[in-house]
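Regression check, pyridoxal-5'-phosphate case 458:
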Amino acid sequence: MSNLDVPYKIYLDESEIPSSWYNVRADMKEKPAPLINPATHKKLRVEDMTPIFCTELAKQELDDDTAWFEIPTEIQDFYRMYRPSPLTHAVFLEKALDTPAHIFYKFEGNNTSGSHKLNSAIAQAYYAKKQGLRGVTTETGAGQWGTALSMACAFFGIECKVYMVKVSYEQKLFRREVMRTYGASVTPSPSMETKIGQKINAEHPGTTGSLGCAISEAVEVATSTEGYRYVLGSVLNQVLLHQSVIGLETKKACEKYGIKPDIIIGCAGGGSNLGGLISPFMGEKLRGEADYRIIAVEPKSCPSLTRGRYVYDFCDTGMVTPMAKMYTLGHDYIPSPNHAGGLRYHGMSPILSKLYDDGYMEATSVEQTSVFQAAEQFARTEGILPAPESSHAIRAAIDEALKCKETGEEKTIIFGLTGTGYFDMTAYESYNDGTMVDYIPTDEELEASFAKIPKIDL
Ligand SMILES: *Cc1c(COP(=O)(O)O)cnc(C)c1O
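Current build output:
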């Protein structure tokens, strides 16, 4: 069917699951800008972070130099439940597109949470347990992170309080029940249970919430509840570190079969799956050993890389978190209720922001209906029903493969298929009914939001 001599699905052996995470910052000559304290503008130290974050995770967050972190045995054991994940040669999609390109996808949806987020959730729950904590709080958008974290907390026997973006809480009842089945408590955000939730509700009556609001609530509860810390499913350096298992496995599979990617594509919400997928490839690029085109794909409704500003901003709407220098639409930006809940975040990983600003990667943005066209084509050819978030990467991969068809180039494209879309059927319903809309913010809307970003000269 294809002239490449590789299996349809490349499965590594269990013994080939990575035993260390790779920290791409170690190979960056210019490091991402440090997190700062919003009051003093001083660079954050581990002791500034430990009231909010688990100590070991705070250390990982601030470590720009250690290239490899050994994965604790307990986490490696858990990874065996659903890893290694397959790298699949999308022969059926290639055939449908009639393209000379070779398309591969790394599928991270093969676990109950349905996404890559479990890779970091299990690590964060492990460090919380090891520190003797009672529980953790977090936010969740579409619900994948909350689901992953509730699974991880159940495994280690700690409590889990999830603040779920209201629009998703109402749309995704089944996800909420999965979380509760794993023992988590789930609250729609903004709620009236926290001071910041009350404030946001008063300022934005009827708001459907955003990840930024939910983060503020989760942080408030973590810092005011004994034995609790806050954990985050994306954006942070530690999360990209844990997600490097995706890229390390992908690279090993490529090496085993002599696959040389030209283009690596991933959807980007907070940047964790893309950061994880590309990290070992980016390491080679940074060291001058190889070159790849790397493309981040974001929704046109929440275009932080393609239309945002690269400045210091808060990671949350309530301005209770440290500030990060990142591509941002402004901490107060509440994106339209796009169906890719996991991509509705105003900012972007400081690591990816820096790499993008330095020209090591590209970014593109795509409209929602074109994303669902790609999702539909992928589901009908490759069989997997993709998550709306993942389908942004599918859209870009298909577009690149179609360009190859025009030029006759036989490029190799790898994209991250981050998860499945079984809990996103209201989104598919609106696509199937033809009622889906493509919302694109105006320049004026973005300017109004940029104006609320505090000006910081460093
Ligand atoms: C959360 C999520 C994303 C986006 O988050 P990143 O941190 O940018 O990876 C993408 N796909 C799925 C399935 C998700 O759950």
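Comparison notes: Residues 237-257 form the longest helix (21 residues). The CA atoms of residues 279 and 327 lie 19 Å apart. No diff flagged against the previous build.
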